[in-house]
Each structure stands twice: as C-alpha cells, then as structure tokens.
Amino acid sequence: MALSRATTQVLWLLKFFEEIELPTAKPTIINADNNSTIFISMNDKNYQYTKHIDIQYHFTKEKTKAGEVTFQYIPSS
C-alpha cells in the first residue's frame, strides 16, 4: 500500500516536472524496506497468496513494467 502511494506521488511529480520542462531520469527509483512487496511489484507472475491484494495496488506492477519506476531495497535500520 505504501509503494502504491509513493508511486502515485512520483508520477504526479514527474508530470509536474514535465510541465515546467525540467528533465528527469527514468526510471525513478523508489526506496523501500519490504523485500516481499518489491518482489511482487517487479515480478509479472501472480501468486496464490497475492489474490487478496486489491486491484488498485497492482498499479505499481503496471508502472514498473512500463519502466516508469523501479524499487530498491533499503534496510529500515
């Protein structure tokens, strides 16, 4: 859920930067501290244990596949 929210914020900022003609590098890297969520977002395969995830949260998977964002693991400590 947090990655979905971060992804929407990043896309909003990218659109804003595009409007003010500020160049940006793609894909945008989003740091996260949850390996499972990163794996699910970056993997095209759907698993039995992910069926409970609401459709709106598969948005991160779509944006990763499109090359707009990527996720990087950063330990929370």
Describe this protein's structure.
There is one protein chain. This protein is α+β, with helices and mostly antiparallel strands and 77 residues long. The chain has one domain (2-73). Helix content is 43%, strand content 13%. The protein has three helices and two strands; from the N terminus they run H-E-H-H-E. It has helices at 2-19, 35-42, 59-65; strands at 28-32, 69-73. Strands 1-2 form a two-stranded parallel sheet. It is globular. The two termini are 20 Å apart. The mean pLDDT is 83.
Order of helices and strands: HEHHE
N-to-C terminal Cα separation, in Å?
20 Å
User: Low-confidence stretches at least 5 residues in length (pLDDT < 50)?
Assistant: none
Characterize the biggest β-sheet. 2 strands, parallel
CA-based shape: globular
Largest sheet strand order? 1-2
Counted up, domains total 1
How much helical structure, as a percent, in the residues? 40-55%
The fraction of residues in strands falls at 5-15%
Q: Helix/strand-derived class?
A: alpha+beta
Separate helix tally: 3
- How large is the radius of gyration? 13 Å
Mean pLDDT, nearest integer?
A: 83
List the helices and strands and how they pair.
Blueprint: H1 2-19, E1 28-32, H2 35-42, H3 59-65, E2 69-73
Parallel strand pairs: 1-2
Explain briefly what this protein structure is:
With 77 residues, the chain is α+β, with helices and mostly antiparallel strands. The protein has three helices and two strands, in the order H-E-H-H-E. It has one domain.
